[in-house]
Amino acid sequence: MTKVELIEKQIADLDYDSFAQLREWFIEFDQAIWDKKLESDSNSGKLDFLINAALVEHQSGETIDL
Question: How many angstroms separate the CA atoms of 38 and 32, rounded?
Fold first, then answer.
């Protein structure tokens, strides 16, 4: 049995309250990983194309004030 299969079985055996607690933890864990990846990509310049595209749209009058 692989580690993932073992974890899946253990999760399936959880009671409702324990599963809800695990789900909340996993959501927070996943979001923290996403935040770190986004920050890393931003710092390395991988997202500069998004900034440049937004600036081009703004300079050509395609944006509106919020």
Answer: 10
